[in-house]
Amino acid sequence: MILVTGCSGFIGFHLAKKLLEKKKSILGIDIIDNYYSKSKKIQRLNIIKKFDNFNFLKVDLNNFDKLRKIINKYPIDTIIHLAAQPGVRISLSNPFNTLKQNLTAFINVLEIARLKKVKKFIYASSSSVYGNSKIYPFNEQDFENIPVSVYGSTKLSNEIIADAYSRNFNINSIGLRFFTVYGPHGRPDMAYYSFLDNLRKNLPIQVFNKGNMMRDFTYIDDVVLGIVKVIKTKFKKKHEILNIGKGKPDKLMDLIKYLEKFYKKKFKIKFTKNIPIGDIKNTFSNTSKAKKIIKWIPKVNLENGIEKFVKWYKLDNGIK
Ligand SMILES: NC(=O)c1ccc[n+]([C@@H]2O[C@H](COP(=O)([O-])OP(=O)(O)OC[C@H]3O[C@@H](n4cnc5c(N)ncnc54)[C@H](O)[C@@H]3O)[C@@H](O)[C@H]2O)c1
After folding, report:
1. How far is the CA of 289 from the CAs of 11, 158, 174, 224, 296, in angstroms?
2. Given 36, 130, 151, 182, which residue is catalytic?
């Protein structure tokens, strides 16, 4: 049985759905927090709850005693830990919650991995660990990575803690550095989604650094395929870190262009010179390690991915 934490979240939902379709037995855990619309999380959960091979527990991963007792009832052999407090900006305005969700809860799940002697512990890291590194593309061996946000620091800490656990307790761990994941059922706090919300509501959007930013936008289906390959692969090292990014960054202005093209409406844009604190100017993943170890090659380009996202968004908002 596979435990997926954060199963009502964006990536957790898509991953759980894919694994359920493959007839895997899944235990999903989520607290359904209010970082963004709870109804979006419930909407996702209702879709995966339809599968017979799905069990759901609404548990706070910070409550270790409850977690341990409940988990004991399930024959878990693999953990995919995706629950977290995402978001660079909120980690600077409310660092306490980011530390709680991303460090304390992380240790709790690792302890479960140790107690259950799982075959694999797979966890979400982030491109934010690279900070403002200028060594493009970002590669996993780049030790100049100094995160510029509390969020990025918690994700780098996760990698260091997972490494210690894998050495001391023989846990096979794989940390996945996700690069700007987007797509249907996405996160309303992320730019591609909030921009479209503003477009729908005839509100202007604020574009930082005069639009001179790049993101390695990675489509959700590619990300899910990558995680499925991580589950299947036999790793040589006890702890491995992999970039899960498209490997071809796009200009922020191209994102805007495609949103306009598929929504068939022009944005009102307010350009500003600054980049918000904690944000990174460019992200660009080197994907050769993932290609070599898990044989993963992302396929969806930004134009096609945004077309699919806008199609879903219109349906979700009852727009023809
Ligand atoms: N989406 C991206 O672009 C991206 C990029 C880099 C890294 N990540 C990481 O990938 C993971 C998944 O991201 P996402 O985009 O799906 O985020 P998300 O916010 O949509 O999902 C996270 C889920 O975790 C749940 N959760 C939070 N704290 C919890 C707790 N204490 N107990 C139980 N459940 C809890 C939330 O309710 C939420 O449903 C996160 O670890 C995130 O930091 C995401």
Report:
1. 21, 20, 13, 17, 9
2. 151
